[in-house]
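User: Can you predict the 3D structure for this chain?
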Amino acid sequence: MLLLLLLFIFVFVPILSRGKGGAIFIRTVYSVMLLTGILSVAKQEKYLVVVSIFAILGFLVNWLSGVEPTRPILIAHDLGVIAYNLFFAMAILVKTFQPGEITHHRIEGSIVVFLLVGLIFAYVFHAVYLFNGPSSFNNISGAGLREFMYFSFTSLTTMGYGDITPVHPLARSLANLEALVGQLYPAILIARLVSMEFESSSKKRQNVG
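Assistant: Here is the predicted structure, written as structure tokens:
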């Protein structure tokens, strides 16, 4: 899942999303990501059903938006992606912060959540653009997802190049919220993982003693 997300966000969408063939490829990759998400929570029965339902709905709307790319369907697609990834991120966080040793799987899970935050906000900004029109952002060239993906991760990492700027009040508030999450999440995550590792090491020493 981590590898797919990295390729989807930083390679496929920015480079391969142009043209009809590229759009089909992106939809195919996203469909694979939906399946991978289901497999990632397969052992968590309380999340599996909900994630599966969101994944199926996301799959249907994903391909429907290519056949009938009207504004309502495109907005529905964005909302479906947001809902699925939000719930999926929560399921991964719960799994990541379960008691136990800190393994590379937990580290990978925490990185996946961070990437999902950027992906969620990219689709949120895209939905705002579709709903309110081009005047929502300055210097956005078209409604392609790559522009919003770039802006989202620029905001998440607080780089703030200024080449794309939000104009609509909602877009501005969301950009500020994403920047805040981008600062707080790594700090809280590191503190929590260090605390969990300390507790795990202490229990090991007590058991040995």
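The mean pLDDT is 86. The chain has one domain: 2-13+20-208.
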